[in-house]
Write a structure and sequence with these properties.
Elements lengths: L1 H19 L6 H4 L5 E6 L5 H19 L2 E6 L3 H9 L5 E3 L2 H11 L1 E7 L8 E2 L2 E4 L15 E4 L5 H13 L9 E4 L3 H9 L5 E3 L2 H10 L8 E5 L3 E2 L2 E5 L4 H12 L8 H6 L7 E3 L6 H9 L9
Helix pairs in contact: 1-9, 4-5
Length: 301
């Protein structure tokens, strides 16, 4: 109930601020970094797929905000976190674990996430899969076999699969031949081409791969699937002026993602057509898992 109250408050505050004055009337006064907002996006897909979509979102956001918005697809998850810590990003879209780390070391503050088809904060799932004919038939069979993770700071590509292994008596650092592919797409390709015996595969990558024609039912065998995970947050750097942060959140919440094609919305994981308010507390479930696994956030950066 407390999270719902916080979310409603953020929406109300943002809407009130947005309706008070048009963005362009004071944009020159509060646009940071000389008038350009640098927005980072972790490479959950390949850059050629993400760049045109996020450039489109940047144009829509610039029109709402009255500041130039420059999207940057980072080379890896930690690069985005480090860029915000160094003051080189004003905002970003982080994976849930990446956000928890960015909040911890870079003052990131969640304000929104994608909506589902009902207008509620969206979720996704992580899974451990193998392919028909692989020597891995059950989770227990993972011991001694190659396994594709995506990135050390990935929620569905590392944290949740590693947790599932530990709950089944498998040490993900010692019992499997783990490789970090660098992205969900690279992990998927390693699986698809049978370069690893098993690996992570999240629901968003499945949707994107179906659009690309590189996934069909029956290609993989699911050994484990997570409960719903809160989707990626949009976050702003906490040391920016409060007035700008509120206005930036309002601009995001006013975006209409119907301006994107249906396929582009699927690629970025959008089941709905809006961004909705998402407070920091929504990611306490990820923090709890980090605590349970005794993960030192400082060793992930």
């Amino acid at each position: 109930m407390r999270s719902r109250v916080i979310a409603v408050s953020v929406l109300a505050l943002a809407a009130a601020f947005w309706s008070a004055a048009p963005a362009t009337s004071f944009a020159a006064e509060d646009c940071p970094n000389g008038g350009t907002v640098r927005f980072g996006v972790e490479p959950f897909e390949t850059a050629p797929k993400l760049v045109p979509i996020y450039d489109h979102i940047a144009k829509l956001l610039s029109a709402k905000l009255g500041c130039k918005v420059e999207m940057q697809i980072t080379t890896n998850y930690n690069a985005e976190i480090e860029a915000m810590r160094a003051g080189k990003l004003e905002a970003g879209e982080f994976g849930p674990l990446g956000y928890v780390l960015a909040h911890h070391v870079a003052k990131a503050e969640s304000f929104a996430t994608l909506s589902d088809a009902k207008g509620k904060p969206d979720t996704y799932t992580a899974s451990i899969v193998t392919w028909p004919g692989s020597p891995v038939k059950t989770l227990k069979d993972l011991v001694g076999h190659s396994f594709a993770f995506s990135d050390p700071a990935s929620t569905s590509g590392h944290l949740y699969p590693a947790s599932a292994m530990r709950k089944n008596g498998i040490d993900p650092d010692k019992d499997v031949k783990g490789v970090y592919a660098g992205s969900h797409t690279a992990s998927f390709e390693a699986l698809r081409n049978h370069k690893v015996d098993a690996g992570e595969l999240n629901s968003e990558q499945i949707d994107s791969s179906k659009i690309a024609g590189s996934y069909k039912d029956g290609d993989f065998i699911t050994l484990w699937q997570s409960k719903p995970i809160p989707n990626d947050p949009m976050a702003v750097r906490g040391d920016l002026p409060e007035g700008f942060k509120k206005r930036f959140a309002a601009a995001f919440l006013a975006l209409d993602l119907k301006e994107l094609s249906a396929d582009d919305r699927k690629i970025i994981g959008a089941d709905g057509t809006r961004y909705v308010a998402q407070p920091d507390a929504a990611y306490n479930i990820v923090r709890d898992l980090v605590s349970t696994l005794h993960i030192d956030l400082n060793k992930l950066d």
